[in-house]
Amino acid sequence: MTPTLVRNLRDADTSAPADAGTRARDWAEIQERMLAPLYEAVYDRLEVGAATRMLSLGCGSGLALLIAAARGAQVTGVDSDRERLALARARLLPGEGAEGAPAHRARLHENGLPAGAGAEGAPYDLITVFEPIGCAAGDSEGLAPALEAALPLAARGATVVLTGWGPPERCATAPVLRVAARLTESARPPRPGGWRPTLRDDLEDVAARTGLKPDGSGRVSCPFGYADQESAVRGLLSTGLFDAAVRATDRSQVEKEVAEALHPYRRPDGTVWMPNVFRYLVCTT
Question: For residue 57, what pLDDT is reported?
């Protein structure tokens, strides 16, 4: 498994999420790779290759972009997380700014969308959203506006891929995610925004709101496997899904309860293994 960084919590502020740099590294080194089977399945289905001009919304630290670029695609990534984007830049543009650096087929943007079309002036023929929705109430609310802003950069008839969590009964991580909602709600009156079961039509609802036409879907097994319990806790907390719980209680409490929730998934050798299923929806503009 991918080596992980070990952080010292003795002097940390346990009333807030880990610092942005640490969390971004935990995401890139531990958690992001769990979704690699989803990326590969989508790229296989769509035959992503040298002719593909891809725009990735919420590209994170760039693993999905890197896999597409390895297939020859021209890739552009957008993300609002500066630390994750810095890691994506290091992965995809290692020689950026260096004299004599080779030309790259990748572009990265913080927050805003690129000013124009894709590389070489051509519109994008593929837009991907690989940040899965469907595990928290309202977690798709910002997706429709982002898609509406991006669609003018796409070619007519371009493909758009949306992704989400599978049914809770097929996702071993679901009970662990409920810890975040329980801790958050225990410290304040219940309000919308906590964990909820994935709904069958979450992705279709987003497509309908943005005028996209569904054109097929699929399910992909993405087990979450960790070298040990500490790596599992750090990886899961790097997703941001536990931030509200950390603010409502403290980080040490959240880490303790997440570790307890992981106990059924610990193997005799100390590794943690949680089978999950994710869903993707293929749409056309």
Answer: 96
